[in-house]
From TrEMBL:
Ranges where the HTH marR-type domain occurs: 5-140
PANTHER family attached to this UniProt entry: GNAT FAMILY N-ACETYLTRANSFERASE, LD18367P
Protein name: MarR family transcriptional regulator
GO molecular function: DNA-binding transcription factor activity; N-acetyltransferase activity
UniProt KW keywords: Transferase
Keyword Transferase tagged: yes
Species of origin: Caulobacter flavus
Gene3D superfamilies with a match to the protein in the record: 3.40.630.30, Winged helix-like DNA-binding domain superfamily/Winged helix DNA-binding domain (1.10.10.10)
Coiled-coil portions: none
Top-level taxon in the UniProt lineage: Bacteria
UniProt domain N-acetyltransferase: residue ranges: 150-308
Length: 309
């Protein structure tokens, strides 16, 4: 039996095989040029940097220094590269392309653009859009050295639908809840929009790496002086980042700022992680009642937080 990690590794390796085959990266020469792929990458760095030293190219490409040195020697012998001593450091050689080197790069660049352009032009627009979105995502993932950090923002167009959709998907997968739950979330989100009052209501979207990873809503309650915490969720792969705590703290702080004396919430007992989050924030269990919801026997719970405490 394969583990999820094994499946993830296989998926990335399959992508790598497909990508290298479709772009011809395994060919002895790249895009019909006299250069191998590694040589083409070195040539690109030389063309797009001002007077680099060999160490810069080594760091940029993650190549072995000896390999880069051999490539530069071949380029020099072919009249593509020239070197001169650095005025700031005599032991460093500043590299630049010759006229012949710039011409070779221009030809390589034109061929590469035409090759990649043909690849995407042959795709149906739907698949082209998916490919480019995935490529941008991959760049974002590998360009960031620091781990992703979460931040909060207000609602933007499309967020209400996304909150309903993501909660519908997540709770169906994790708890087997069906369309009744998604419809309930959509109803709450729609009512929030229809009755929104900035003096009494608010909402936050948690995001990381440009992606929605959670939400929480603050709405006025039926009892004077009381508000409700609603639609809290955190994406499964964002759990452990402190997102839930951040959302709850923002909601509690805003409820206090708006002058509410109490903050209530409804949940069900099977949502153990959320319950622990509420308890750590100071909420107390006020009431619980057996209920039949989402085709399951559940226990409704009402939790309350005294904002004057």
């Amino acid at each position: 039996m394969t583990t999820q990690h094994d499946q993830d590794v296989a998926a990335l390796r399959a992508f790598n095989r497909t990508y290298t085959r479709r772009l011809g990266l395994l060919d002895a020469s790249y895009d019909g040029s006299p250069f191998t792929l590694s040589e083409a990458r070195v040539l690109y760095e030389l063309a797009t940097r001002t007077d680099p030293v060999a160490a810069e190219i080594v760091r940029a490409l993650g190549l072995d220094p000896a390999q880069v040195s051999r490539t530069l020697k071949r380029f020099t012998e072919r009249g593509l590269v020239t070197a001169r001593e650095s005025p700031a450091h005599g032991r460093h050689l500043l590299l630049s392309l010759t006229d012949e080197g710039r011409a070779a790069f221009a030809t390589l660049e034109a061929n590469t653009k035409a090759s990649v352009g043909q690849l995407i032009d042959d795709l149906h627009p739907l698949r082209r859009a998916r490919l480019l979105e995935a490529a941008r995502t991959i760049n974002t993932v590998f360009d960031g050295d620091a781990p992703p950090s979460a931040s909060l923002r207000g609602l933007e167009p499309g967020d209400l639908g996304m909150v309903a959709a993501r909660q519908g998907v997540i709770y169906a997968r994790e708890y087997g809840w069906g369309a009744d739950h998604e419809a309930l979330v959509a109803e709450i989100a729609a009512r929030f929009h229809q009755t929104f009052d900035p003096a009494r209501d608010d909402a936050w979207i948690a995001q990381a790496d440009g992606r929605m990873i959670g939400s929480i809503f603050l709405v006025r309650g039926e009892t004077p002086g009381a508000a409700k915490l609603r639609l809290l969720y955190v994406e499964p792969d964002a759990r452990g980042m402190g997102v839930g705590r951040m959302l709850v703290e923002a909601c509690v702080a805003r409820a206090k700022a708006l002058g509410y004396r109490r903050l209530d919430l409804w949940t069900v007992s099977v949502l153990a992680d959320a319950r622990r989050l509420y308890q750590r924030a100071g909420f107390k269990l006020a009431e619980e009642t057996p209920a039949r919801r989402f085709d399951q026997d559940l226990v409704d719970q009402t939790w309350s937080l005294d904002l004057g405490a």
